[in-house]
Amino acid sequence: MSGIILCRSKYGASAKYAEWISQETGFKVIDTKKADIKEVEKYDTIILGGGVYASAIAGIAFLKKNIGALKGKNICVYSCGAAPYDDEILQTLKDHNLKGELADIPCFYFQGMWDLNGMKFGDRAMCKLYIKMLDKKDPSEIKSWERPFLEAKDKKCDWTDKKYLAPLLELIRSKGEEI
User: Fold this and answer.
1) Which conformational region is residue 48 in: left (phi greater than 0), alpha (psi within -120 to 50 degrees), or beta?
2) pLDDT, tens digit, for every residue of 46-89?
3) What is the pLDDT of residues 134-169, one digit of tens each?
4) Which residues are CB-neighbours of 47 under 8 A, at least 6 positions away?
5) Taking Cα atoms as reference points, which of 131, 136, 97 lies closest to residue 116?
6) Cβ–Cβ under 8 Å, residues 165 and 80
7) Model-level pTM greater than 0.85?
8) In this predicted structure, which of 83-87, 115-119, 130-134 has the lowest mean pLDDT?
9) Tell me: the pLDDT tens digits for 77-104?
């Protein structure tokens, strides 16, 4: 089985997962901004991963633009965000990013990293506003996946963990030869 990992990582978590997947599979990793569809369509398996920003998966535009050329391929998507895994988060990501021709593509969510001070201005401003909103919420109304934002605030956190990859790697193995 041949495969490639397309990754769009702004702050490092998606790239870290891409490298771990590459170590397990031997698949090459390439940034979606540098990906050429003529090269990508040569592979049997395409894994696209990116960070989550306002419910959008970074790099998903490459898949949307080129889905016609990738028909019949084993495709899956993973995304990373600061929140821990939650079925509601995964469903929101699927609903927002995997519509139409992409609707049947398996999607995975992995907890990533948080570094408010290392963020670009726009991301930092948006996150600070979100934290302020959460601070004003009744604690009983705060969802479990929102708590890390309140706990992290200005701290640097890395929640990445290879264990999150198990379902994705199992799917890849089930679609082809033993990796």
Assistant:
1) beta
2) 999 999 988 899 999 999 999 999 999 999 999 999 888 889 88
3) 989 998 998 888 888 888 888 888 999 999 999 999
4) 3, 4, 5, 6, 18, 21, 27, 75, 76, 77, 78, 168, 172
5) 131
6) no
7) yes
8) 115-119
9) 999 998 888 898 899 999 999 999 999 9
Q: What are phi and psi of 25, to 5 degrees?
A: -110, -25
pLDDT at residue 177 is higher than 50? no
**Rounded CA separation 88/7 (Å):** 23
Size of the chain in residues: 179
Task: Give the pairing type, strands 74-81 and 45-53.
Answer: parallel
Residue with tokens 């998903």: 60
Alpha carbon of 131 to those of 50, 71, 162: distances in Å?
Answer: 23, 41, 28
